[in-house]
Amino acid sequence: MKKFLIASIVAGMVMVLGIGSAFAAGTGTSLKAGTFGFNVGFGDSSLGNTGVIMISGKYFIESDVALIAGIGFQASSGDQDANFFGISAGVRKYLKTDEFAPFVEGKFTYVNETIDVNGIDRDTFDVSAGFGAEYFLHRQFSIEGNVGIGFGQVNDNISNNDYTYFGSRTVGVSANFYF
Fold it and tell me: Is the dihedral of CA 120, 125, 130, 132 positive or negative?
């Protein structure tokens, strides 16, 4: 039974990868001037806020250069009332616009976090540079992953305990839709 389960999982993965490759093969990409797209990210935000989904938009000013902007929010209640709001803006340069499209990007992010139970109310300003790649499963759908490095400043609005930081970014995996 265990061997059957493992064989089924492997066969399923091969079929999914084969279907994805078949969709991508020869379909090209939607990376061209005037194209709009949006991105939904999964995983931690660039500032380490778990569970926050940032939704970003892209507008291609050239076939290999896109302006990016995003917004994210989260509200929770119960034992811990908390609010998160973030916006970001930047530019992305694609090194290649094929089915596998590597890129570099620069981004500015502003985040406001308020957590009542911990007495936290802080503003974060972050500037980061990243690199990654998109893989097109279809002409208008891709998955991407990226990592980066950045620095920023945190302003604590309650304790006035302000600090700067520098470090790596792990953004995770996201999906892109083009139209």
Answer: positive
Strands (E), the chain: 36-42, 54-62, 65-76, 82-94, 100-115, 120-138, 141-156, 163-178
d(CA 125, CA 117): 23
Distance separating alpha carbons of residues 47 and 70, to the nearest angstrom: 14
Q: CA 47 to CA 88: how far, in whole Å?
A: 12
Gap between the Cα atoms of 71 and 18, Å rounded? 34
Minimal CA–CA distance to 82: which of 55, 109, 110, 50?
50
Instruction: Please answer whether residues 151 and 127 qualify as being in contact, where contact means their C-beta atoms are separated by less than 8 angstroms.
Output: yes
pLDDT tens sequence across 117-142: 667 788 889 999 999 999 999 889 99
Span 22-76, pLDDT tens digits: 444 445 677 889 999 998 876 554 455 545 667 899 999 999 999 999 988 777 6
Domain ranges of the chain: 2-178
Asked whether the beta carbons of 105 and 129 are under 8 A apart, the reply is yes
CATH class of this structure's domain 2-178: mainly beta
Residue 86's pLDDT band, with cuts at 50, 70 and 90, is confident
